[in-house]
Amino acid sequence: MTPSASIARRSGHGLTYAVLGWAVAYGGVRLAWTVGEAPDFGRFGTDLLGFTGWRSVALCVAAGGLAVALERVTTWRPALAGAAWTVVGALIAAAAILLPELVGFLLFTVGPYFDPLAFASRLGCVTGAALLGVATARYQRRTRGDCPDCCRTVRPGSRRSAPARWARWAAYAAVAGLVARFAAQAVVGFDGLTQDASIIGLEIGLVLAGVLLPLALVHRWGEIWPGWVPLLAGRTIPRLLLLVPGFGLGVGIVAYFGMGLVQVSSGSVSEFSDAFLWVAMSAYCVLGLGLIAASSDYHLRTRDACRACGR
């Protein structure tokens, strides 16, 4: 075994232990709250969505078991990777309320429903999702493809500099989703939404995330700073500057409003009509999915070529 392979193997073990440690610690808390008395969690009444009680314990057990399987299996098994990504998605969906809370922090307001313990629980849940997600990505990198250095599956010499057609459509769909969301709001009126400074800040952020971000992911000015940007014109834009908000917001929006659609379909009570909620939340989901798709293409186009195979 080469030194680099040995180091990679040890780091893989460390990641597995990290997931197992999280599963024991966070799963133990969930178990104690399930068999005992769970906290009140303030006015909102819950810390996670959909996966509470024994379902939350089952997610922790599944994450730990999958982490061990991902470490021990040495061949590419799509079913195993699919199961792991499903658990990652479930953990993110369970902590979906984290999205508006983080947005509130950016706007220097936490809202009337903020509860520190519930917030910490959601952070713990997302931490497990992140650890298992990295473990799953490491498993894919180790077992897919024919290059031992990158495990990429594309043909050598097939790298492209232009966005794929499907990525452009995804970006435009994201913009259309935002337009549909504001159109739905225009139908019911903007009363009360133009008087609160935090709401105005949120709306400005939505325009940036729903228009500039998806378009930047599929246009040249998303890779090289345009000429009208002072001091930075002509320089390469750091990949993470677009990939982090692209993937982060995309996943967060889909998780939060996807769970919202589940609640609407189950007949939860709201001050808004079901028609408005279906249109608005569906539009947000389109926005989030468009961001994820466009970010995926941006990642594939802008990543460094493998030094061993050139892919």
Structural write-up:
With 311 residues, the protein is mainly alpha-helical. It folds into two domains: 3-143, no CATH class; 165-302, no CATH class. 67% of the residues lie in helices and 0% in strands. It has nine helices and no strands. Helix 3 (78-94) crosses helix 8. The model is unreliable at 1-8 (pLDDT under 50).
Shape estimate: globular
Count every beta strand, where a strand is a DSSP E run of 2 or more residues: 0
Low-confidence stretches: 1-8
H and E string: HHHHHHHHH
* Contiguous helical run count: 9
Secondary structural class: mainly alpha
**DSSP helix fraction:** 55-70%
Q: Could you say how many structural domains there are in total?
A: 2
Largest sheet report = none
Would you tell me the overall average pLDDT? Answer: 84
Distance between the termini: 24 Å
How large, in whole angstroms, is the Cα Rg?
21 Å
Describe the oligomeric state of these chains in a short phrase. single chain
Proportion of residues in β-strands: under 5%
Set down the secondary structure blueprint:
Blueprint: H1 3-35, H2 54-72, H3 78-94, H4 98-106, H5 116-143, H6 165-188, H7 197-217, H8 239-265, H9 274-302
Helix pairs in contact: 1-2, 1-5, 2-3, 2-5, 3-5, 3-8, 6-7, 6-9, 7-8, 7-9, 8-9
Defining traits:
about 300 residues, globular, disordered N terminus, single chain, mainly alpha, 2 domains, about 65% helix
Question: What is this structure, in a nutshell?
Answer:
This protein is 67% helix and 0% strand. It has 311 residues and is an all-alpha fold.
